[in-house]
Amino acid sequence: MINALGLLKRRRFLPLFTTQFLGAFNDNLFKTSMVLFATYEIFADETQESFFNALTAALFILPFFVLSALSGQLADSSDKARIIRLVKTVEIAIMAVGGAGLMLARTGAVTLPLVLMLTAVTGLGIHSTFFGPIKYAILPQHLDEEDVLGGTGLVEAGTYLSILLGTILAGFVYRSPVLVTVLTLAVALLGWLTARAVPPAPRLGPKLVLDYNPVRASWRLIAETMHIPRLFLAICAISFFWTIGSVLIIVFPPLVKNVLTADASVASLVLAVFSIGVAIGSVVINLMLRGQISARFSPASVIAMGLTVLAFWWVVGLWTPAPEGQLFDMAGFIRQPHAVLVLLALLGVAIFGGMFVVPLYAFLTTTVTKDHTARTVAANNVVNAGAMTFGSIAVAGITALGVTPSELLLVVVGMCVVSAMIAQRLHRACD
């Protein structure tokens, strides 16, 4: 196995990596800017903020649930590189709609801007639904088998580093809708250019007859995939992981504002630390496994993730809020006695999360033949989307009943235990 970073020198990997990097960066630059703008400029109520964040997450996830079956069929029956170029063209239009919503919101209007912004978020969900299966399914087609885990780890690390950069930048520019619009359109155009350099990845198996009925196609796709024990367990474990992630992402902005009493720059810092941690975990697990696709470290990783979530909850409970009517800026936040502990606990959550999930994605793309990889990833996306949508709706309902963001962290701890149990069964079944 070559050093995983050496894959970045390969034309069969670098354009895909760059295109994915730019897409994830742009998604998060827009979504984070929108959420921060709504949290700090539009809403002034913790319940409304949590509900809006949950609605945003649900609308982004919903297309995965409805359209993943179709996206998997298209990817396995067409040239994957061609689909990538088409998807990146649509991204330009999505960013134009989202930018218009942000600029209208700055004028003081509320309803139409929110509709446009949420429409763009839904569009980004559709964009990711069609790109998601390809970014993993194309790896076994372009890389040697012993490099698939390394390539998967780099894609995950690159994704979260791009989330980091998009999140950090959003914290500085979200108050300027014009600047956000210009940046997101420019990045979308750059992604369109890099997508044109992705080498062809033509259909390998027989051409499929596409099923456009989302319910029937999704059911058939899941049934054809989930009967394989290791795929069933891997998909269940990944679904729990992303449900945990969706809860955390929903919780972070209102928790930062209302519990840590900090401004948007600190909300960006918290999300950035989370992204750095997942990237680190993605690289660390590849080094530990030495390219071998195995779940042997996954149970311990997710248990450690749960313990660090518990530590994060405990440290947040010790926090001394800012004086009434004030919010800590980043410098003021860092000066607080427990700030370092908060960030270290959060970093631990993310590192162990990255270590948990990367090998599971490698299972998806190496368990089946290459002409079924996109549909396998798509089946995973359908199940993930269902779990994450349920999680987002549950968070919206629970917060409406008065449960605080801090208390939701304890729910996450329990979910980590369930994930560990599933991962242990996968380890026993496969290793």
Automatic annotation (TrEMBL):
<feature type="transmembrane region" description="Helical">
    <location>
        <begin position="339"/>
        <end position="362"/>
    </location>
</feature>
<feature type="transmembrane region" description="Helical">
    <location>
        <begin position="301"/>
        <end position="319"/>
    </location>
</feature>
<protein>
    <submittedName>
        <fullName>MFS family permease</fullName>
    </submittedName>
</protein>
<feature type="transmembrane region" description="Helical">
    <location>
        <begin position="231"/>
        <end position="252"/>
    </location>
</feature>
<feature type="transmembrane region" description="Helical">
    <location>
        <begin position="408"/>
        <end position="426"/>
    </location>
</feature>
<keyword id="KW-0472">Membrane</keyword>
<dbReference type="Pfam" id="PF07690">
    <property type="entry name" value="MFS_1"/>
</dbReference>
<feature type="transmembrane region" description="Helical">
    <location>
        <begin position="50"/>
        <end position="71"/>
    </location>
</feature>
<feature type="transmembrane region" description="Helical">
    <location>
        <begin position="264"/>
        <end position="289"/>
    </location>
</feature>
<keyword id="KW-0813">Transport</keyword>
<keyword id="KW-1003">Cell membrane</keyword>
<feature type="transmembrane region" description="Helical">
    <location>
        <begin position="83"/>
        <end position="104"/>
    </location>
</feature>
<dbReference type="InterPro" id="IPR036259">
    <property type="entry name" value="MFS_trans_sf"/>
</dbReference>
<feature type="transmembrane region" description="Helical">
    <location>
        <begin position="110"/>
        <end position="132"/>
    </location>
</feature>
<keyword id="KW-0812">Transmembrane</keyword>
<feature type="transmembrane region" description="Helical">
    <location>
        <begin position="382"/>
        <end position="402"/>
    </location>
</feature>
<keyword id="KW-1133">Transmembrane helix</keyword>
<dbReference type="InterPro" id="IPR011701">
    <property type="entry name" value="MFS"/>
</dbReference>
<feature type="transmembrane region" description="Helical">
    <location>
        <begin position="178"/>
        <end position="198"/>
    </location>
</feature>
